[in-house]
Amino acid sequence: MLQRSLPAEFIARSVVLFTALLILGGCTREEATARIREELQPEHLEIVHARFPCRSPDLHFFGYRFRIYKGEYADGDICWDVSARKWTWQILPEYPLSRLNIRK
User: Fold this and answer.
1) Which end of the chain is more exposed for a tag (fewer CB within 10 A), N or C?
2) Is residue 89 a contact partner of residue 76, using CB atoms and an 8 Å limit?
3) Which candidate, 55, 53, 54, 34, places its Cα nearest to that of 45?
4) Which residues neighbour 39 within 8 Å (Cβ) at sequence distance 6 or greater?
5) Smallest Cα–Cα separation from 52: which of 44, 61, 43?
6) Percent of the chain with pLDDT over 90
7) Is the pTM of this model over 0.85?
8) Which residues contact 42 (CB under 8 A, 6 or more apart)?
9) Sign (positive/negative) of CA torsion 17, 18, 21, 26?
10) Rounded-to-integer distance, Cα 14 and Cα 4, Å
11) Chain centroid, CA 98 distance in Å
12) C-alpha to C-alpha distance for 31 and 15, rounded to whole angstroms
C-alpha cells in the first residue's frame, strides 16, 4: 500500500485549532498556576514544560510539569480534565511533598 503524508497546511491548521480550543477551554498556563497557588500555596512555583499527553492517575490529554518549593523542592504534573473542565494536580511520588497529593 502507498502511504500518503498529510499536507503541511492541514497540519498547521490542526495545530492552530487545537491551540485555540485549549485556550478557550481554560487550559492556559495562567489558569494552571493559579490552581496550584490556590491549593498548595508554594513559596516558589515554576512551569517546567508542557506535556502531551499529561501523565496523571487518569489519562488526560494536556497539562504541564511544574516545580514548587514549599520547605523543599518537588516536581509534579497539573493536567486539564476535559470532562470535569478543571485542573487536577499530582506531585510525583519520589518527592516527600507527594504527601500533599489528594487521595481518591
Assistant:
1) N
2) yes
3) 34
4) 89
5) 61
6) 40
7) no
8) 36, 68, 69, 70
9) negative
10) 17
11) 17
12) 21
State the cell numbers at 29. 498556563
Per residue in 30-40, pLDDT tens?
A: 888 999 999 99
**For 70-94, how does the pLDDT look when each residue is reduced to its tens digit (9 = 90+)?**
999 999 999 887 777 788 899 999 9
**What ranges do the domains of the chain cover?**
28-100
Using CB atoms within 10 A of its CB, is residue 35 exposed (0-12), middle (13-18) or buried (19+)?
A: middle
Cell of 32: 494552571
SS3 assignment for the chain: CCCCCCCHHHHHHHHHHHHHHHHHCCCCHHHHHHHHHHHHCCCEEEEEEEECCECCCCCECEEEEEEEECCCEEEEEEEEECCCCEEEEEECCCCHHHHHCCCC
